[in-house]
Write the structure tokens for this entry.
Amino acid sequence: MSTLVDHNLCAPEYAHIRFEKRPCPNLDGAPVPGLYNAWIILDNPRQFNSYTTDAVKEVILAFGEASNARDVVAVVFTGEGDKAFCTGGNTKEYAEYYAGNPQEYSQYMRLFNDMVSAILKCEKPVVCRVNGMRIGGGQEIGMAADFTVASDLARFGQAGPKHGSAAIGGATDFLHLFVGIERAMASLTLCEPWTAHQAYRLGLVTDIAPVLKVDGKFIANPLAIIDRYADEYGRIVFGALKTGDELARGKELLARGVIDFTILDAAVNRLTAKLLHTFPNCLAKTLTEVRKKKLEHWDKNKEGSREWLALNMMTEARAGFKAFNEGPKHDREVDFIRLRQLLAEGAGWDDELLRAISPQYKTISV
């Protein structure tokens, strides 16, 4: 056999993510000789696996490497630790470098766009293994994947309008395809997260798995309502967070337990094993056709969204990201009412307005 051509743009070196080729399991769980799953792991657990500029570059290269690897069956996209898959862009970097620098953020967003496109154009099926929160930009890159298998402790949602942005890095393009336009609208504007059980019921994820062990046994998420019941307004509730004493008891159970991803990883392996037993070219063509629904919106909107997000770094994003980065732990949002009042009075986006609405400038009265 002649020497195979290397189709990678370069030989990647990874410092902010991990790229691992793990043996692909068969349906009986035994590894298949010579075949692998590529695991792309966001490796910033101290900041909930938020991606820095350098991490974005590496994710692009990693998906290119996985796509080109002849011995790779599927890609598993996940995060390090048990707190988060990803909470989006690194707000510290946003606040300290990109806020007030639209020309720089424009370049960053071009990289972000290329990251989402790299996921959507990967020639292997992509499984998002959600090991914790999938919020903001993390939700967006997760929805670019083909399948989602999640911890039942995971939470899913957006944060943009609460922190000075809009979820136009993919969420406004993709979310309605999963859950319908009204539920998408509520998530994108109100920024109220869904539990994994709600996300599963709404069709956002393929499968969920218990990960909490209490007294040596796996239990379902003790913070979520697992059974259907009618709330005080007569609405049917399923999967929402518990309230009151039930929530307090759930938190006690959560504190007593340990996180174990054995069942989650078995579910991921079971899915990739099923994908192994398909014709690779027919599988790739099917992926391409279904992804067109996402790409139809994504390719139409991504450049205009990039330009808007860059300019927004001079106004609302500048205020929101700095508040989140510099405000006290219990108060990381701007004063929305005061902001609206000042804008109604004709105030401009100057330093005086920022000081008036930002929690980091508040003084404690004595």
Notes: The chain is about 45% helix and 20% strand. The two ends are 81 Å apart (CA to CA). The chain has a mean pLDDT of 96. Residues 214-259 form one domain.
